[in-house]
UniProtKB/TrEMBL annotation:
Family matches, as CDD domains: KAS_III (cd00830)
Heme keyword on record: no
Protein's name according to its UniProt entry: 3-oxoacyl-ACP synthase
GO annotation, biological process: fatty acid biosynthetic process; secondary metabolite biosynthetic process
Ranges for domain Beta-ketoacyl-[acyl-carrier-protein] synthase III C-terminal: 256-343
Domain Beta-ketoacyl-[acyl-carrier-protein] synthase III N-terminal positions: 113-190
Keyword annotations: Acyltransferase, Transferase
Molecular function via GO: 3-oxoacyl-[acyl-carrier-protein] synthase activity
SUPFAM superfamilies (alphabetical): Thiolase-like
InterPro entries: ACP_syn_III_C (IPR013747), ACP_syn_III_N (IPR013751), Thiolase-like (IPR016039)
Amino acid sequence: MKAIIDGIRIAGLRAVVPSQRHSFVDEPGMFTVEEAKKLAATIGVQERRVLPPPYCASDLCLAAAEGLMEQLGWEPATVEVLVFVSQDADYVLPATACILQHRLGLPTSAAAFDVPLGCSGYVYGLWIAAKLLGGSSAKRALVLCGDNPTRHLHPEDRATLPLFGDAGSATALEVDASAPPIPVVIGTDGAGAPHIFVKAGGKRHSLIPGVGTAGRIADEETAAQLERESRLTLNGAEVFSFTLRAVPPLLREAMEHAATDVDGIDRFVLHQANAFMLEHLRKRMKVPAEKFIIDMQGFGNTSSASIPLAICHSMGPQLAAGPVKTLMAGFGVGWSWGAMVAELGPMPEPQVVDLPEGYPVLAV
């Protein structure tokens, strides 16, 4: 489907990452030194940020939101929409967004809810929040995108362990009648559900022994099965095939919807899946390298946070000067995809900061 966002501007961005780092180049672990170096060169990840317990993705997003609101000079009482985009909710219930609303001091008139999407989640979150602003009395919104995928990884999975990292972000939107329109393209194909998959944790396959369709028994064998099912499985061949099949048409459709082309876009910021895949897409779309952001060397694939993190880390000074016509596109788990073309900036310079030491945990 296609949509247009009218009268809404993106006022600011901020990303927060854990201070804890891990590099398979420096600590090869299950890899040989040569394997680790070759892998890093292929996927484009030299090190990842790893969030230690008891912190969750919401803590990174909370810190990002607090810092961004301070940077913008926004009072909490002026924000009446909060969208938390994450596949790593704090609890089964309540919605993490409700806890974030309270911690941020937003008014009780605010709409706050979770959107459990991953790779495409940033585009979806911006679209949803903008449409809520356009159809209500609210004037300002926060879209908080963050995941801590490292918690889903099996410690012996050579395919996923070197790739994924943790991050959180905050993006501020506000009503502005002079803002240029933002064209949006969205799509879904649930046939891809098994290819990026964490089986256990929901009601279909509960992590509680004895709950769910299997009527599980709490024994060692069941515990081992639940451990396996609670880890991420990723079919790399299917993901690559989907990406080549779906993303080039998505980018072309987004540019057509925006009445522009590659020459008319200043920066392309795609979900930072892996460098090899992104470079393949860049060449297929004939995008000059200087326009195409690949910025995951120090962070890894951070799921829903990867687009705002890449923007904050690689485009800060440009956005402070602005405007920068930017095509943002997310694609992956679901299958789910979305793209938008937005003029970003001028705005206070977006930043990436480490989660402060001793930061209070967001907990009930």
